[in-house]
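User: Structure please.
Assistant: Input sequence and predicted structure:
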Amino acid sequence: MSESSDSIVNLDGVEKSFGAVRALAGVDLVIRSRECLGLVGHNGAGKSTLMNILAGTQMSDTGRMIFGGKDAAPNYSVQVAHAFGIRCVFQELSLCPNLTVAENARIMHPSLTGLRWRNAARALILDKLGEIFPDNGIGADELVGDLTIARRQMVEIARAFTVIHSEVRLVILDEPTSSLDAAVAEQLLAYVRRFVEAGGCCILISHLLDEVLSTADRVIVMRDGRVVDARPAGQFSRHTLVEAMGSVAEDVSDNAGKFLSKRGNGDPVVSSVPPGGKRNGITLKAHKGEIVGLAGLSGHGQTETLVSTFLENNARRSKALTMALVPGDRQNDGVFPLWTIGQNIGIGSIRNLVRHFLLDLDSEKALAEKWRERIAIRTPSVDDGILSLSGGNQQKALFARAFGSPAEVILMDDPMRGVDIGTKQEVYAMIREEAAKGRTFVWYTTEMDELSQCDHVYVFRNGTIVADLARDELTEQKVLQASFEEAS
């Protein structure tokens, strides 16, 4: 493989296997400066594995990584990657939750020493946060564990772009907007373009195809551990990009018309007051068989409303309907990291899997196998650990846990983080099918396409509901207007 003068790194025949799973099957790729490189593919296509190798957190089995004409192996590591100017924002965030924002910035910059290192770290991270995300409101002395997942994602992104001595040449962004609302995501993507135009390079991994097409200069498509297509972004349309990924070439937005618009009659099965209380007499209500959307800027009470609804229902277990929650923060609130895939799926149905006061392991495995096949979880065995899965496949396991459970109400907290377009289409179809049978869904999402598939949508602002929009009157303009302006 030839190396051009503007290349940062050349990947030549990179392969990686995890037991029987071949994650990378010989990847060739040239990464250049002054370019935003979009990287797309289904969950398990090899994207995150390739980026982990490039970031130095994993070693390839075979193949070469060439920097400046020199092979980086066999001593390539995170430290070597940093020396080459490579940073990575991982899909599963890597911040230390027990440290402050400034202390997390210090971890990346060990040269910050002396009695006043905290002041320097505070200034470093706050300056970069303000540059990328104006008016973010994040304090340097806040504990990371106390931040919302969206704010943690913002801190991780800002930290990756901070510079003290060595130049940052390449920043890998793995699903960087997955927890960000539209306004904050737009701030990030605008900064990415500025960074690239100033001579840097970004690799943007995202399942939001419109985001990739509007931001990237070149798009790489991966499937089954290989690069199957590589073209300038302008030569792709959304349809041809989906085709190249191997999906059913169905626009996600087309699904919206397949939902039966309805407003429930009778008593609601879910009734909840947001954390900020009632506003104009509006409370959250969902009737049997409804799909109710929650919208608005991230951090305005949607997640808190879902969690409080779930916890209050559990506290009244003897009287209430059964509920399941699909969390958006799978790392902290979703998976049991020491358990198998099958155990993570089966825990939602454990009462139905008990025989004579003991867990029926055969029934648990049968349930997991059923959902592994139905939702296409990429694993050779449900007996493997949950962390053996890619992030998107872990999220599939959380969907399997909820859908496979007897829950009559499913609460979903922006659940499509890191989920590929094909799986999204399958999950949408499952939601329609289950709603038709009488299951109720309350669905917080930051994606407009998903809001348009709900029967009606509550818009949140400052912890209260400020608008209730039927699907036939739902527009992005109305959602944004309600999100930013005082209700009349």
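Confidence is low (pLDDT under 50) at residues 248-257.
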